[in-house]
Amino acid sequence: MSARQLSFAAVVMAAAVIASGACAQTAARPDLTGSWERYRGPAGDPANPPPEAAAPPLKGDLLVEWEERRAAAREADARGEPAASNVTHCIPDGVPSMMNGPFPFEILQGATQINIAQEAYSQIRRIYLDKPQLTLDDIELGFYGRSVGKWQGDTLVVDTIGIKEYVRFRDVPHTPDMRVTERFRLVTPDILWDEITITDPAVLDKPWTVTFAYRRMPDYEIIEYVCEDNREYADEEGVTRLRTGQ
After folding, report:
1. d(CA 140, CA 161)
2. Tens digits of per-residue pLDDT, 93-126?
3. Cα–Cα distances in Å, from 51 out to 19, 28, 198?
4. SS3 110
5. What is the DSSP string of 28-51?
6. CB neighbours of residue 17 within 10 Å
7. What are the structural domain ranges in the chain?
8. What are phi and psi of 17, to 5 degrees?
9. Which of 28, 165, 183, 231 places its Cα 20 to 30 Å from the Cα of 92?
10. Which residues pair with 78 in a beta bridge?
11. What pairing do the DSSP bridges indicate for beta strands 208-216 and 191-199?
12. Whole-number mean pLDDT of the chain?
């Protein structure tokens, strides 16, 4: 084979390697489109279920206060006087609580954006792909904040900032500086994991990680859920009551 032929063969081989790599990168991005429900069974591999959620690593007195609130809530539930919650006030859960379930959600995956629509309250998260994250000064704080994502192989990594302080996950306080990092990954074709890591140095001693698992719901259509004519209300003591009669 001549030097020219060898050079041409090398170019062809290099192009094939590049094309193969591009195909592999594309193939590594699974399609998450569809309806999902929270799954609490052995997620994917029974020998490797999602890790159990640890208590939030709150700093000093904040942990004591959190534990006292949790104990008081359990006692109130036992008395049949549950404390008012987001459900009572018709307030959506926001991020990351909406990922906890129990309501199903739908993922719509595109090339530049992924939307997550939860059935309860018709909550919608918009994840902008391959865009830089803004600063807090450029974001209006909200229930869902601003989410940007990127694919790392077969894992979707999502960064969220800008959550309102009263939008809490498991009643854990936070500051406007809270950052939520999620890693979405299919552990089987029909089981999806969302590893959620919360960082907030002013409140937490270290990052706090919770992992949720979801099961695909073929052919399930998300239905409308509007908090309309809610019969629950909070009394002057903050206890959830039920309106009776007309």
Report:
1. 10
2. 999 999 998 899 999 999 999 999 999 888 999 9
3. 38, 24, 16
4. coil
5. TS----EEEEE--S--SSTTSPPP
6. 10
7. 1-29, 31-242
8. -65, -45
9. 183
10. none
11. antiparallel
12. 83
* Answer CATH for 31-242 from 3.90.550.10, 3.30.390.10, 1.10.1740.10, 2.40.128.20: 2.40.128.20
| Residue carrying the six token digits 């994991």 | 193
Distant-in-sequence, close-in-space partners of 154: CB < 8 Å, separation ≥ 6: 28, 29, 30, 185, 186
pLDDT at 51 (0 to 100): 73
Query: How many Cα atoms occupy the beta-carbon half-sphere of 44 within 13 Å?
Result: 16
**End-to-end Cα distance, the chain:** 93
- CB within 8 A of 164, min separation 6: which ones? 94, 141, 142, 143
* Angle ∠(126,127,132) on CA atoms, nearest 5: 130
pTM of the model: 0.80
**Residue 219 Rama label (left phi>0; alpha psi -120 to 50; beta):** left
Cβ atoms 114, 31 nearer than 8 A: no
Which residue in 174, 149, 150 sits closest to 162, CA to CA? 174
Nearest residue to 178 via CA among 200, 201, 162, 147: 200
In the three-class reduction of DSSP (H, G, I as helix; E, B as strand; rest coil), residue 17 is classed as: helix
What's the token pair of residue 240?
């959830």
199-229 confidence digits (pLDDT tens)? 999 999 999 999 999 999 999 999 988 887 6
Q: Which two tokens stand for residue 233?
A: 């209300």
